[in-house]
């Protein structure tokens, strides 16, 4: 990717010093550049002072100044990163001094100017030693965990070295404390190691995590802690949940081999448990008689292929994962398993709920709902506490849902022709129950009890009532007529939102990023104002506090997703689908760009719609379609009420005053 046109590389020589090749931003005043260079030089010298007080003050100021990208570039040009790593490796600094050194290092590396691949084994060992010590200053521990996470995420070579230096057992004590920031950084390091581990190592790492009781430690010390879970912790728990479920992908994508006797024995075991029969091939009776008996039992078990049910498991997904779930259910919930199989085998053929087929389709559905096999989203916090309450949470989840499916089948009085309809209802029951974020599997089960088929019908009816009477021809013609007026209303709303502005997080190799920048449109819609912020703002940021400007007339195009320059760069976090869906860039002049990653999907749609509106292009986001539909429906209802001569007040009714005396009763007589 070409450098911005305003950045110029210049060789500068000072008297008595080696020449330096520096990058100069031509948009910045020369006086500001000189000031930054002088400040960088002064701090470079102060942090090497023999006076401890001067050195400490210098490191403190360095940690604060390193947040600024221009200063960071100047300090790095002085070989400042090497200086800091040597100071850490020397082991002479402790406590506050070491904390400021590591903070400055983290801030400098976050700008992405220096590659993570350049660090020595000695430096990695030193950072790892801070994490492995039983008692360590909390600030030093936090920075050390952050550095290890960034190393693992940004370099496969460093992943190998970090994995050799720290063990899961050494990280566990940090989760048992009360500092949620330390807990968050610790889980982030575990997630990073999990994410970058080769596929063959992930199962092994999962077993180690189980042995060290990671799940129960997180449940007791984090999820059930008296402290509320903050946004970043919620994200890390979601990451761990996704990475754990993704271990199922291998089984999900493995077809059954109909010739594999060990795999066929699992099906024999399902038959044995259900019908209390021995599967001895040497038992009495002719071969034809035994085949007939097996075919009859496999039909009762609900397989599609009664002769060779192994063929049912050649569909991927869900592959062998479905058979794993069925066997677990049969062994660990034996009474429920036998009841479902025998209950359905005694019904009329057309009303039986096929256990085998249902289990296979349900497993596939659950994998879709939990997005098994997909990379975790960079902006999601959607973890489910109930999945941290059991070591085999996915298969226990299946066991609850297969019983729900059987119950719903009976409530719907379904036949084999209704199979897909039943699966749709079950999906709705499960997804609605999950939105309540139950704290345990028992709570999830209770939530499903309240979402019977009758209740789902009521919910659907209520939702359908909002869409009635809008499909007749006169209504459709009226909708078409007023649509341009509504689109103009949406356009104005989008532009007003751009005028209010949005706070964006700066792009970095490290996810936990507390650096922000703000962008907003001028009231006359002619200029975009933007600039860096020290912290997340409370409310709008005034135009005059934003240093940079971009005239709307200079904008050539707005690109999104993979077409964005910052998404074409290779990075540990850039391949994520969710990040791609939130990325957009403004291209201006010949080869310059302003890169964004929206905080959420709504802001992404607001900005891409607003920018397209500024450029005179069509607004095509999903939120525009949704808003258009909502506003059209509202306008149609108002006009229909007007036809019925129902007066609609101009102002909303007043909010009732709070009663001064709550000591009252209602006389039912």
Automatic annotation (TrEMBL):
InterPro entries with a match to the protein in the record: ARM-like (IPR011989), ARM-type_fold (IPR016024), ELMO_ARM (IPR024574), ELMO_dom (IPR006816), ELMO_domain-containing (IPR050868), PH-like_dom_sf (IPR011993), PH_domain (IPR001849)
Gene Ontology molecular function: SH3 domain binding
Pfam family of the protein (one): ELMO_ARM
Residue intervals of the ELMO domain: 262-434
Gene Ontology biological process: actin filament organization; apoptotic process; cell motility; phagocytosis
GO cellular component, one term: plasma membrane
Keywords: Apoptosis, Phagocytosis, SH3-binding
Function statement: Involved in cytoskeletal rearrangements required for phagocytosis of apoptotic cells and cell motility. Acts in association with DOCK1 and CRK. Was initially proposed to be required in complex with DOCK1 to activate Rac Rho small GTPases. May enhance the guanine nucleotide exchange factor (GEF) activity of DOCK1.
Name of the protein described by the UniProt record: Engulfment and cell motility 1 (ced-12 homolog, C. elegans)
Species whose genome carries this gene: Astyanax mexicanus (Blind cave fish)
């Amino acid at each position: 990717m070409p450098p911005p046109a305003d950045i110029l590389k210049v060789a500068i020589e000072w008297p008595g010093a080696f020449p330096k090749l520096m990058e100069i931003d031509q948009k910045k005043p020369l006086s500001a550049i000189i000031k930054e260079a002088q400040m960088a030089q002064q701090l470079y010298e102060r942090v090497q002072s023999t006076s401890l007080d001067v050195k400490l003050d210098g490191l403190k100021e360095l940690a604060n100044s390193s947040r600024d990208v221009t200063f960071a570039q100047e300090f790095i040009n002085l070989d400042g990163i090497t200086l800091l790593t040597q100071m850490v490796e020397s082991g002479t600094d402790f406590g506050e001094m070491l904390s400021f050194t590591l903070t400055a290092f983290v801030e400098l590396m976050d700008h992405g100017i220096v590659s993570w691949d350049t660090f020595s084994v000695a430096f990695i060992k030193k950072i790892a030693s801070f994490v492995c010590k039983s008692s360590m200053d909390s600030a030093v521990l936090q920075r050390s965990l952050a550095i290890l996470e960034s190393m693992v995420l940004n370099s496969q070579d460093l992943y190998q070295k970090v994995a050799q230096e720290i063990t899961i057992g050494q990280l566990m004590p940090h989760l048992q404390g009360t500092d949620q920031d330390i807990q968050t950084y610790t889980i982030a390091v575990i997630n990073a190691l999990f994410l970058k581990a080769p596929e063959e190592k992930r199962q092994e790492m999962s077993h180690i995590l189980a042995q060290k009781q990671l799940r129960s430690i997180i449940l007791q010390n984090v999820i059930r802690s008296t402290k509320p879970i903050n946004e970043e912790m919620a994200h890390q728990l979601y990451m761990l949940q996704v990475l754990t479920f993704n271990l199922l992908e291998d089984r999900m994508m493995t077809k059954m081999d109909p010739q594999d006797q060990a795999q066929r024995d699992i099906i024999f075991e399902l038959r044995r448990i259900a019908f209390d029969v021995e599967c001895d091939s040497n038992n009495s009776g002719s071969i034809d008689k035994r085949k007939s008996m097996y075919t009859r039992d496999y039909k009762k078990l609900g397989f599609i292929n009664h002769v060779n049910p192994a063929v049912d498991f050649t569909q991927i997904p869900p592959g062998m994962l479905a058979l794993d779930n069925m066997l677990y259910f049969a062994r660990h919930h034996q009474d429920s398993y036998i009841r479902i199989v025998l209950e359905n085998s005694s019904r009329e053929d057309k009303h039986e709920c096929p256990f085998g087929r249902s289990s296979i389709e349900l497993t596939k559905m659950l994998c879709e709902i939990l997005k098994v096999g997909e990379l975790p989203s960079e902006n999601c916090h959607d973890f489910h506490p109930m999945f941290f309450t059991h070591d085999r949470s996915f298969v226990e989840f299946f066991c609850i849902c297969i019983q729900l499916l059987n119950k719903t089948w009976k409530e719907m009085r379904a036949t084999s022709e209704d199979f897909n309809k039943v699966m749709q209802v079950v999906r709705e029951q499960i997804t609605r129950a999950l939105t309540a974020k139950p704290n345990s599997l028992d709570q999830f089960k209770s939530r499903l009890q309240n979402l019977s088929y009758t209740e789902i019908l009521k919910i659907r009816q209520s939702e359908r009532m909002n869409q009635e009477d809008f499909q007749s021809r006169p209504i459709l013609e009226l909708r078409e007529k007023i649509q341009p007026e509504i689109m103009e209303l949406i356009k104005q709303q989008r532009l007003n939102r751009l005028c209010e502005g949005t706070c964006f997080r700066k792009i970095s190799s490290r996810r936990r990023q507390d650096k922000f920048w703000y962008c907003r449109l001028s009231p006359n819609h002619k200029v975009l104002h933007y600039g860096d912020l020290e912290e997340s703002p409370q409310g709008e940021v005034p135009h005059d506090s934003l240093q940079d400007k971009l005239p709307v007339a200079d904008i050539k195009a707005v690109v999104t997703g993979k077409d964005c320059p910052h998404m074409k760069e290779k990075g540990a976090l850039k391949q994520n689908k969710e990040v791609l869906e939130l990325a957009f860039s403004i291209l201006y002049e010949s080869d310059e760009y302003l890169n964004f990653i929206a905080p959420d999907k709504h802001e992404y749609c607001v900005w891409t719609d607003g920018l397209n509106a500024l450029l005179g292009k069509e607004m095509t986001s999903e939120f525009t379609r949704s808003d258009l539909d909502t506003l059209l429906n509202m306008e149609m209802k108002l006009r229909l009420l007007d036809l019925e001569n129902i007066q609609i007040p101009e102002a909303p009714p007043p909010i009732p005053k709070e009663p001064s005396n709550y000591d009252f009763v209602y006389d039912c007589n």
